[in-house]
Each structure stands twice: as C-alpha cells, then as structure tokens.
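Entry 14. Ran structure prediction on the chain below.
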Amino acid sequence: MQDFFTKYQISNDEVIAVGVSGGADSLALALRLNEQGHKVVALTVDHGLRPEARTEAEYVASLMQKFAIEHHILTWIGTKPTNGVEEAARQARYNLLFDFCHQHNIKYLATGHHRRDQAETFLLRLARGSGVFGLSGILPKSERQGITIIRPQLDSSPDDLKKYLRDLNIKWIEDPMNDQEDFARVKMRKFLPQLETIGITEQRLAETATILQSTREYLHHQCNKFINDNVRRFGTNIVALPFNQFIKCESEIARLVLGELIRSIGDNSYQPEAESLQRIISEGKQFKGCTLGKCEIEIASHKLWIIPQDSSNTTMTTAQWDKFVAEHPEFTNSGLPYKVRRAIWQTWK
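Output, structure tokens:
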C-alpha cells in the first residue's frame, strides 16, 4: 500500500484522517496505515439509525486506543429521512468527516473502498447508462469540499483484508444494511457471483474501471480546456458559454462540459446522468431551456446560461435591475431573460 503514497507524493508527515465504520475494510485500512508509520486520526460516524450504533462506535474507539491511534466519534444530529436513507446517510457521513478535517487542518481523508466496491460501482453505473466518467468507477484520489479523498485499498481484495484482521485476532462489525436487498448496491453484490460463472470477475470489472480512468483523464483535460477557453463566469455561480460553439463540440466533450458546469453550479457531488445531458445536446438549436441538477439552463443572447435553481421565490423589480445596470453598464440592453437577470442581480446585490 505504500506504493500508493509514493505514486501520489503524499508524505508520511501528513496527517491522514480515516473513516472507520468498524467494518473489516475500514478497520484494516486504519491499522495498516498505522502499521506503516502514517499519522492516523480515526473517525467513526454514529448515524443514529440503529440503537446499537453507539455501542459499535465505542468498540472502534477502544480498538483504536489499543493501537494508540487517535479516535473521534462524530454524531449525525437531526431528523432522519424516511426515504432515500442510504444516500442521505452517506451525504451526512461525508459532511461530518469533511467538517472535522477542515476544523483540524487535515488535508487527506482516506476511505476503505476495495476492489469489490469498485466492481459493484462499475455495474451500478453501467445499469444507469453512465458514460466514460461514470464507468471509470471510484477514483484512487479525488477532491471534494477542499479535502483530498484517497482510497489506498482499491486494489485489495476484501477477503484479504479480513484475513489481515483475523491474523491480528481482531473482530469487525457486520453492518446489517449489507443484507437489505432494498439497496441497489446489495442487489449488485449478490449478483456478482453469477457473473463470475461466465468469466466476468470482480477483478476484471475493477481492472476495466482502472483502464477507463486513463480515458477519463484525457477527456477531463479537454473538458477543462473548453471551459477555460470559452466559458464566461459571473460571480461564483453563474456561467455562460457560446451556444453555437458548444453544439458544434464533439458529443462526448459537450456532454462532459455541460455535466461539469451543472455539477459545479448546482453544488452537486456528481454530474447528472449522461442520458439527461445528451437529451439537451441532441435538441441543438431547438433547445428551449430546462431544469437539471438544481440548475436552470436557459438560452439567451446566443449563449447557454446555467444558473442555480431559485427556490427562495425572490423577486426583482424593474427599478432594482435599472439601478444594477447603472452600476454595471455592460448589461445595458442585454436582452437576458428575467431568471438570468435576477440571478446576476442576486450575485452582486
């Protein structure tokens, strides 16, 4: 695993926060990093969704203490959703982890994702009709909310991680949600053995995702180049790009550009599904506007505008816009639709 840190030039002097649920993969990660001399801070999130969750978090705390690893329990406080529990819990977990890292000036957060997670993710995204970006799976290193997320165990088999713990005589916690077939990932996990009977193994799926990551990097470079060369930004949450030039783009690049801008403006973790993006691009000059990924997408003044979806029902009067234009004469006679003018006005007011 040390090869991972060498490849990504992460010094052993860096503090590594590790999300430790008590499952085999995250326990193995924290202990392996500690064993290799990294400065580890273990973080366990108590979602409060199960009565035994606190006891499990305290078990992890005692185990970390045994190995002289700093440990903190982070608690998800507030009303829990009745629908979309899996995604809401995941989002809450990451927010708590990111907040801790920001508060303690920790740049790196390590998660215990392994090879089977990669294979499951590939299949889940295949089922959703994802493009290259989605099918490249879980990235070894990524950025989110100003924190670098690292996944040093993506090449590791979950069975090997459990063996590592058995050799240390350490028990791990089995999450009961791992057996609930209401969750798509659990269904995919139970389907994997059927694929292996025809040669589509966990390892082969993970390797395919890794191969696609090289293609993703190239496309990401081209996407960023188009954005840097053509996109005009107004404040931090409004963008405009020349529509005619955009629709002349190669389809894959156009889809990635649109997806990345919507992800950024809508403050989303992921881009919209490729099918939704392609629908906009395919309409070409017939496109009239839509809402997607918490964004309003409009055509005006030969430009494609992407602005945050406004759920506040804020209104802007003609007098307010006229005052704004007096201070920003570049918007005189702009011919922009009301939604775009209101978003620009809200950015500067």
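The chain has a mean pLDDT of 90. Will compare against last week's run tomorrow.
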